[in-house]
Amino acid sequence: MTRTIDDLPPAVRSRYPYRSRFVQVNGRRMHYVDEGPPDAPPVLLLHGNPAWGYLWRDAVPPLLAAGLRVVVPDQIGFGLSEKPHTHAVHTLDNHTANLIALIDRLDLRGVTVVCHDWGGPTGLGALLSRPHRATAVAVMSTWAWTTPSSAFHRSVLPWRMMHAPLVGPYLLGTRAAMPGRGMYLSVVDRSRFAEESQEAYTTVLGDADERTLTWTWPRSIPIGLPSDTTGARFRWLEEGVRALRLPATVLWNRKDEVFPSDVFAARWHEIWPHAEGTHLVTGKHFLQEDSGTEIGHLLADFATRATRAAHDPGAAR
Predict the structure, then answer these.
(1) Is 2 exposed, middle or buried (0-12, 13-18, 19+ CB in 10 A)?
(2) Closest of 115, 28, 105, 110 to residue 69, by C-alpha
(3) Whole-prediction pTM value?
């Protein structure tokens, strides 16, 4: 059964009051929001695990107020998109291909690609495959390389144990640990999150089978072990992003336990010496929950200037 934003609880609808749209990508039904003038410069907001477009709700109004078009897809397996139960569907290459298909189907041109968490490897992979469609790129709490890997992801407790063959399906599937306590612990203002956001994430992943991706996809994060399955892909990603010459900006939170800014934001500046930032905001890994409006204003300013410079190379950035 296809659900839309109108089918969600009233409190969720009131905070994400947009029209649901759907597009077929590689045989799967992807949900997305598309707001603002259709001929305006587009901004593509990409989420990770276990979020969906709702994560960007506070960032959308400043972008729209700046006259931009805002496209917010739900990755296949999350939000209101189709949720395949087959584990083989949930690979980095497949999710990247889904975003490429979305960009092509919507014919997005001059797009500013904004990457958070898994939106980084997938969005940057799509950008490298469609560089002619991009104007600028923004990264926050994400990565695109094998080394350094995150100490959080290398840790046996809690990360690697949570994704073990038996424990993962129980904790993340049956007990819904990721859209539940996992996200709750990854924000600063937990009381606000519990009141305004928790329901939005748990209600769209209400069945254990629908939560398959929350414990299968993270297994492909490279952590320097012989069992890593995506090392070659991440080496391709790093080589590609190093060669990018697009305007770039780095936004980060002050308390990220997954991708600490002193290591990961700094690495982005080593890869892109020309990048703006780092713009630090209040938050932990899901920084949009604590500083969504501020992030929206930062992105609106950046995307507007990047678009202007693309049309007038002599314009000041």
Answers:
(1) exposed
(2) 110
(3) 0.96
What does DSSP say about strands 276-281 and 111-116: parallel, antiparallel, or unpaired? unpaired
| Whole-number Å distance between alpha carbons of 92 and 107 | 22
pLDDT > 90 fraction of the chain, expressed in percent and rounded? 80
Strand order in the sheet with 111-116: 21-25, 28-35, 69-73, 42-46, 111-116, 134-140, 248-253, 276-281
Query: Which helix (H) or strand (E) covers residue 263, if one does?
Result: none
Using DSSP, state whether 129 is helix, strand or coil: helix
Token representation of residue 36: 């603002």
Q: At residue 78, what is the residue type?
A: F
Name the DSSP class of 41. Answer: P
Q: Which of 270, 273, 267 is nearest to 247 (CA)?
A: 273
Give the span between the Cα atoms of 141 and 216, in whole angstroms: 20
The domains located in the chain, with CATH, are 5-311 (3.40.50.1820)
Contact 317, 309 (CB under 8 A): yes
